[in-house]
C-alpha cells in the first residue's frame, strides 16, 4: 500500500489542508488489505475513513487516466 499512498503523497501532499493531512495520517494506520478493499470497492469504506482525502486517493488511482497507478494493475500483481 506504500506504493498507492506514496504516489498520491508525492503528487498531492503539498496541496492538502491540515485536516486532510490528519485524515491521510489516519488512513496510513489502517491495514493495507482494508485500504485495498475500500479502493477497489470490494468492501464498504467505514465512515471514519470515507473522507475527502480518501476519495481523492481513490480518484487519483482508480479514476486515473493520467498514468497514475491503477488499483486494478496493482491487484494483478
Model description:
Residues 65-77 have low confidence and may be disordered. The longest helix has 11 residues, at 2-12. The protein has 5 helices and no strands. The two termini are 12 Å apart. Helices cover 61% and strands 0% of the residues. It is globular. It has helices at 2-12, 18-28, 32-40, 52-61, 71-76. It is mainly α and 77 residues long. It has a single domain, classed as DNA polymerase, domain 1 (Orthogonal Bundle), CATH 1.10.150.
Alpha carbon gyration radius: 12 Å
Report the average pLDDT across residues: 84
Head-to-tail CA distance between termini: 12 Å
Major pleated sheet = none
**Overall helicity:** 55-70%
Number of helices: 5
Tell me the CATH topology.
DNA polymerase, domain 1
Secondary-structure element order, N to C: HHHHH
Quick one: how many beta strands? 0
Gross morphology is globular
Architecture, CATH level 2?
Answer: Orthogonal Bundle
Determine and state the CATH class.
Mainly Alpha
Structural class: mainly alpha
| Estimated share of beta-strand residues | under 5%
Q: Short description, anyone?
A:
By secondary structure, this protein is mainly α.
How does the SSE layout of this entry go?
Elements: H1 2-12, H2 18-28, H3 32-40, H4 52-61, H5 71-76
Amino acid at each position: 500500500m506504500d506504493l498507492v499512498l506514496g504516489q498520491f503523497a508525492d503528487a498531492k501532499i503539498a496541496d492538502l489542508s491540515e485536516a486532510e493531512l490528519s485524515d491521510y495520517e489516519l488512513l496510513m494506520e489502517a491495514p493495507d488489505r482494508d485500504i485495498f478493499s475500500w479502493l477497489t470497492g470490494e468492501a464498504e469504506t467505514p465512515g471514519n475513513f470515507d473522507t475527502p482525502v480518501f476519495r481523492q486517493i481513490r480518484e487519483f488511482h482508480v479514476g486515473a487516466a493520467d498514468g497514475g497507478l491503477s488499483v486494478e494493475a496493482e491487484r494483478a500483481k
